[in-house]
Amino acid sequence: MSPFNNVIRNQLKEEFFELPSLPMDAEGLAKDFRHYYAYTLGRDRDCQAAYYSYAALAITLRDRLMERWKRTRQAYDERDCKRVYYLSLEFLMGRALSNAMLNLGLDDAVRQGLHDLGLELEEIASNEPDPGLGNGGLGRLAACFLDSCATLQLPVRGYGLRYEYGMFRQTIEGGAQAEEPDHWLRDGNPWELERPEFTQRVHFGGRTEHSVDASGRHVVRWVETHDVLAVPYDIPVPGYRNETVNTLRLWKSAATDEFNLGEFNAGSYPESVAQKNQAEHITMVLYPNDASENGKELRLRQQYFLACASLKDVLRDWIRLHGHDFSHFAERNCFQLNDTHPAVSVAELMRQLMDEHGLQWDSAWAITRRCMAYTNHTLLPEALERWPVRLFQSLLPRLLEIIYEINARFLMEVSRRWPGDNDRQRRMSLIEEGHDPQVRMAYLAIVGSFSVNGVAALHSELLTKGLFQDFHAMWPEKFNNKTNGVTPRRWLAMCNPGLAQLLDESIGTGWVRDLSELERLAPLAEDAAFRERWAAMRRANKARLAEAVADICGVDFPLDALFDTQVKRIHEYKRQLLNILHVIHLYNRIKQGDTRDWTPRCVLIGGKAAPGYFMAKQIIKLACAVAEVVNKDPDTEGLLRMAFVPDYRVTLMEVIAPGTDLSEQISTAGKEASGTGNMKFMMNGALTIGTLDGANIEIREQVGEENFFLFGLTAEGVESLRGHYDPNGIIAADPALREVMNLLESGHFNRFTPGLFDSVILSIRNPHDPWMTAADFRSYIDTQARAAATFRDPETWLRMSILNTAHSGFFSSDRTIADYNRDIWHLETVQPQI
Ligand code: 26Q
After folding, report:
1. For residues 651 and 648, what is the distance between their CA atoms, to the nearest angstrom?
2. Comparing C-alpha atoms, which of 292, 310, 316, 282 is closest to residue 164?
3. What is the pTM of this model?
């Protein structure tokens, strides 16, 4: 019996719940701040740890969110509107404090209130841990989407997992990546509200029992299961100055109270209590790979845990408002699947509707495929998720039965459409046959959804022509594109106050809600006085970045140099290696005395490697080794600097994007689904050097080809070169690349560790190198030289910089979300009552 089932006997009076609005002025905020510091946190002059100032300020702001949060929930319930649930194993939210201040419109008042107490906001805010509950682009996209949904006042709730340990902290030890656990919850999290009253039960293991009940209905029971509790923690998601506060609900796993009674009765109390661990492990740690890690049982447990708890939560809410009639459920609910990670939801919704709510297959299936929508984030075939059938069988036997049934009915449909085409049936089956049969999660997601989208125009097109072509032939109407975007609140207003102020003064303040307003900047590119202000703003941002690099890496970045940045997960397809080869080329030119008309350049690289990804770790080693040689060589003084910044994360990007001149988006064409860092840089006035890949293509379309440094093979070019790619021929024929390879192969960057970079060298020279680094080298360094020459003409560069910001409006996640809503969700906006 849970204490939360006990309700106060005499219902509380309605007035009880009506609270006076809290003060929003400096004085009122400061008063609350002192109250929380002294009473709630109980600190005094003997403890002045900065953390408590942060905690007191967080609670002060949380109170202001709380009232709006309740009113938003009420408004949604009263309107009984259609809702969307964004299901994702990752939400990379970043810090909440300054975001809450900005969105509540309290930044000036808080700053003033703290100032009156003799405190500085920035110092206090720097004590907030950066919650890293995601790997990279996909997790950060989920966070940007939640911000936009709240700002557009759409009834969208995020569902995810409350990992005890987020993305590992990266340090560089002896020139190589080392990983440290990220216990981000250690000091508590003032932004979450535990909701034990909404705990759900999730089953694992056991077996199924089929029978026929009195009315002749087929009934399935899933029995002898090992159950785990899912306890929700709610995090407020404020919209921009609009009274809406949406919810991100994260589940934590917990043991049930009846764990392992057998052992308990046998007298092994400690052993049976220790069983709790099993259950509590589920949400212990985020998997740190940003490509699927196949076959890991714990990961499948995490995926099912999220799907089961979230769907039960939604169905519970449905029943609370509508009773047990599900006939209108599909019109009023939509689940957006963030990649295949939550795709088991397709089978789980079927299970809950049939086994727990008594629906028949056909009505359950009609509902399911009308309310699931799937977003794909990868073009790499090897990254498509597959799970061994035997693992499904032992962990989720009931779900496997349902998947088999979905598959049987689906393959019937395929054979009706293409009679006798057995090869097509084999290709499209949800089960990949072989000595160890696998469940194909992407196919389950496609079959179970009414919408399938890619995340940039090229990506969506390539999906229909490649990975999913059979499905596209069957259901062309399901497929659509939704080009990614990023929130202008965090990625402009918050992280670049200098630019924000300049925008406010020159084009008004409308851009924060409607980023297409940035177009009005374009004419100002021709205004010399405006360019001067732009230059001053950019210089201040570069100074802020240079200070961070000096602090963190101990490398000096002179402000007049070209700041050239590549920050993202380390992956061969993203080709950090190509960037490093360019640095070696520049270094070689310096050593040869070839420095006429030189543009001083500072190259910054950052990103985490999956702990088990050998080549990615080699690339980090090479970056560190090259940086060491370059920076130590007196000949490079004033000409070239390179730094590898450890522990790249959301909070670092907030300093890096505004301070960067040149953004590196250099993936092998056809491999990067979209990219979103590219958009953050553009918005903040960086120019892009990039391939025709992912959203780069659309960035170039928006800004104009004359304002974008394009290089490299096209996606088609890459594919047609396969089979006769000859990197060794290319190296032999290009003196610059030959000299770069010579330096690498002579051990110039690994004097004391012979052979250290052999694997890297081999990969470049390998005719089967899927990423074709050597193929794009010449085009890349020539384009880099063009960028360098352009940079030497400051007025031209400034014009281009202004135009990049001016034409970045399309990449607001507000536009992306409006597109999702128009084509997929069809939600109405809801304004909470003030
Ligand atoms: C899957 C199974 C088991 C363990 C881990 C995973 C896993 C985790 C994270 C697989 C993939 C990811 C993350 C993928 C990702 O971030 N993709 C990026 O998504 C961005 C948003 O759409 C795009 O802009 C990027 O192009 C894409 O690489």
Report:
1. 8
2. 282
3. 0.98
Q: Which amino acid is at 6?
A: N
Mean pLDDT of 740-761: 98
Q: What angle do CA 621, 622, 626 make, to 5 degrees?
A: 120
Q: Which of 246, 235, 229, 135 minimizes the C-alpha distance to 192?
A: 235
Q: Is 568 a catalytic residue?
A: yes
Q: Does any ligand 1 atom lie closer than 6 A to the CB of residue 385?
A: yes
Residue 783, SS3 per DSSP: helix
Q: How many CB atoms lie within 10 A of CB 820?
A: 27
Our answer to whether residue 377 is catalytic in this structure is: yes
Contact 318, 329 (CB under 8 A): yes
Contact 275, 302 (CB under 8 A): no
Which amino acid appears at position 208 of this protein? T
What is the overall mean pLDDT for the chain? 96
User: Rounded distance, CA 656 to CA 676, Å?
Assistant: 14
CA 198 from centroid of its chain's CA atoms: 27
Q: Write the CB contacts of 450 (distance below 8 Å, at least 6 apart in sequence).
A: 369, 370, 371, 372, 373, 478
Residue pLDDT, tens place only, 701-731: 999 999 999 999 999 999 999 999 999 999 9
What token pair was written down for 589? 């030119």
**Of 127, 129, 122, 111, nearest in space to 49 by CA:** 127
Instruction: For residue 70, indicate whether it is catalytic.
Output: no
* Better pLDDT: 563 or 15: 563
Q: Is the pLDDT of residue 261 over 70?
A: no
CA distance 798 to 780: 22
Count of all residues that appear for the chain in the document: 834
Contacts of 152 (CB under 8 A, 6+ apart): 239, 814, 817, 818, 821, 829
Pocket test for ligand 1, best of 167, 289, 290 (most atoms within 8 A of CB): 290
SS3 342: coil
Alpha helix positions (H), 385-496:
389-395, 397-417, 422-428, 441-447, 457-465, 469-474, 488
Which pLDDT score is estimated for 19?
79
Mean pLDDT value of segment 272-276: 72
Residue nearest to atom 13 of ligand 1 (CA): 290
C-alpha–C-alpha distance, residues 694 and 665, integer Å:
10
**Which ligand 1 atom sits nearest the alpha carbon of residue 676?**
24
In angstroms, the CA 231 to CA 252 distance is 5
What does each C-alpha distance from 604 to 36, 335, 584, 781 come to in angstroms?
A: 41, 39, 14, 17
Does position 832 have pLDDT exceeding 90, yes or no? yes
Which residues contact residue 174 at a Cβ distance below 8 angstroms, ignoring those fewer than 6 apart? none
Cβ-contact 2, 194 below 8 angstroms? no
- CA within 13 Å, CB half, 431: 20
Q: How far apart are CA 604 and CA 191, in angstroms?
A: 33
**Single-letter code of the amino acid located at 227:** D
Which residue's alpha carbon is at the smallest distance from atom 1 of ligand 1?
292
Per-residue DSSP letter, 21: P
Give yes or no: 357 in active site: no
Identity of the amino acid at 476: P
Q: Which of 676, 691, 773, 805 is catalytic?
A: 676
d(C-alpha 302, C-alpha 781), whole Å: 44
Cβ contact 719:670 at 8 Å = yes
Residue 259's pLDDT is 61
CA distances, 30 to each of 53, 56, 117, 118, 218 (Å)? 11, 10, 7, 11, 64
| Secondary structure (3-state) at 796 | helix
